[in-house]
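Q: Please design a sequence for this.
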């Protein structure tokens, strides 16, 4: 029961953050990595947001974490699903090892 509640809370937070990430023109560009789980998670997010006044685009299978991170920073996408471990340990690599993650 606790695990299910945590999963539902996480999904709700992802939807809320995605809506907040919408650009000024009311669009949202969702990216996904080049593997099935990432594509499925991004597609779930796209479908969860369908029906709102948001133009949603899912840019499927763009590549690995580094490519999606750069696309996020450059404005090519607004959001993408990522593991917390990858986010804290792999991205960004230019931080010193002593920086809080």
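A: Design:
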């Amino acid at each position: 029961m606790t695990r299910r509640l945590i999963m539902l809370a996480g999904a709700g937070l992802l939807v809320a953050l995605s809506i907040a990430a919408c650009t000024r023109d009311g669009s949202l560009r969702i990216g996904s990595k080049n593997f099935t789980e990432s594509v499925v998670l991004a597609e779930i997010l796209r479908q969860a947001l369908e029906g709102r006044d948001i133009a949603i685009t899912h840019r499927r299978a763009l590549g690995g974490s580094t490519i999606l991170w750069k696309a996020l920073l450059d404005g090519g996408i607004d959001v993408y699903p990522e593991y917390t471990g990858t986010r804290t340990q792999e991205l960004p690599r230019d931080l010193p090892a002593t920086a809080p993650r």
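Q: Thanks. Anything notable?
A: The longest helix spans residues 2-20. Residues 3 and 9 are 10 Å apart (CA to CA).
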